[in-house]
Amino acid sequence: MQTRRAALRSAVAAVTLSAISARTASAAPREAGRVRLTLPAPSGPYPVGTISLRLVDASRPDPWMTSQPYRELMIGIRYPARAVGAYPTAPQMLPGEAAGFAALNNFSDVPSDQVDWAATRTHAHEGAPVDRNAGPYPVVCYSPGAGDPRSLGTTLCDDLASRGYVVVTLDHTYDATAVQFPGGRVESTVLPAEFAKAYPDPDRITALLRKTLAVRVADIRFVLDELPGALPRELRGTLDLARLGMFGQSAGGFTALQAMYDDPRIAAAADLDGVLAYVQEDSTPGNLSTVAANGLDRPFLLIGKEGNDLGTVPSWDSLWRHSHGWHRGLTLHGAEHATYTDAEAVIPQIAHRLGLPRKTVVENIGTIAPRRAISAQRAYLAAFFDRWLRDRDDQGLFDGLSDRYPEARFFS
To answer: Residue 136 maps to which CATH number?
Structure first.
């Protein structure tokens, strides 16, 4: 994951190569000797179950593929489970998704073709029975960064589910690197090609950024509309949509706060290092979103990489000044943009196995120790949603500096 939101810009040169690679990689057999990865186990008391659902929005043609008269999405649902022993753990990425991710992702100087992305298993068990003893559970939606699959937030999403949340993760079709639908059909991202058409005209680039965010927010609102009726019988009655939150990383964080601004059903939202303006660099002023320009009246949390705060991110400053509800902001010392994804767990493994220089690790995930970064993210995210969706004590984590998490630096 690049340290700035230049993923689309840098992908222009890779459009043709990535398309060829995606086609060949999806057909290629798994190669022996490629790096296999593990993800950290969730920290909560519940085992985790998972299902995936295909949803179709017949009310709108696909904004990216205008010949298609409907919008088609894949979502994943993580939930507290029981008796998981007989149910297999789910892969982080299906084969078609893994091939697309290997062909075009935002990791800097990481040889993706030497990693077996399809081999990574999560800690969520496919189709395991839900634990109804403590339900219905509050619901948290997750949106990934631009060009990223929903699976790149597995570490945080599985952890929230293990703590007693139902977590709904969403792939934004033609935005995510690759989305695999039932039957094996794969739809790949169009964002690099769209950026190539817009570049270098700044007005066209701004329009593309606006469209990308608008499509994402519409996706979220459609999923919220559909969720009650789309659930399989075994999950019905276990989601408490009256206690609804959302979070995301990068463009997903932007999506979370903008969706909350647009949709009163979302009670609280967290933005993990997502700029809130239609700009290519965090520090660029202007082109504010409506959420940044007008603020929020419900609780929100900003968590940034080192150096991102109210003084350096104009859209955050505007949001802060115009908001009247509870809000907090913090950075993690030594964190980078991709710290708030599964990159924090997998980049050190890849670097160790392939002998990559420390510079590559730092460029992707910063200098913060991975265990400390993951522990702090989990704690602050769970404390935030516990406070606003469950009315639980946040253990003083938002009162100021914490001896447990000295990496966290608050800003105001």
So the answer is: 3.40.50.1820
